[in-house]
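Hi P.,

Sorry for the delay on this. The queue was packed all week, but I finally got your sequence through. Input first:
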Amino acid sequence: RRQYQPLSLQRLQYLIDLGRVDPMQPIDLTQLTNARGVTVQPLKRDYGVQLVEEGADIFSAKVNIEVQRASELAIATIEKNGGVVTTSFYDPRSLEILCKPVVFFLRGQPIPKRMLPPEDLVRYYTDARNRGYLADPSKVAEARLELAKKYGYVLPDITKDELFKMLSARKDPRQIFFGLAPGWIVNMADKKILKPTDERLLKYYSS
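Then the structure:
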């Protein structure tokens, strides 16, 4: 059985208040595990984190956060503050790399493509109500409005927000890291990024 480690809104707010998590950047498992906010162990059947609503009454941050699952009230709380939630699947290998990027980069290997979800998870991640990363963006926009009506708040217009670029940042379904594409090699020693130039490699990583 797949397991998801709980991350409460109270814990997330605490990590932001301590300066361990930067709300001015998109937040994913790399940030959360670096901040010691959660411990994810892919070898023990962990598939990421579930955002839960504990602390919804005190959560005040505006964030763009990617998690693997999220409760409805947790989603509503983030969106009420002008933030964005995306639920996203990572296969165990991609998850391990996302949680421990430095260990992976030191091996000098190309960043692999993230796998798509198995059949039994496709429904969850294509559902706009779950803010699934494979959902139709126009349906997600509708679902955001519906949730605001249900909980009785006015949905902030993020397109007018000065942080719109950060709030609208999203990964490609095959991408593991924000800002780094599959096939790239991060050379830690020389602080360089190496990108493939071979046509066949480019075709493979972009498919």
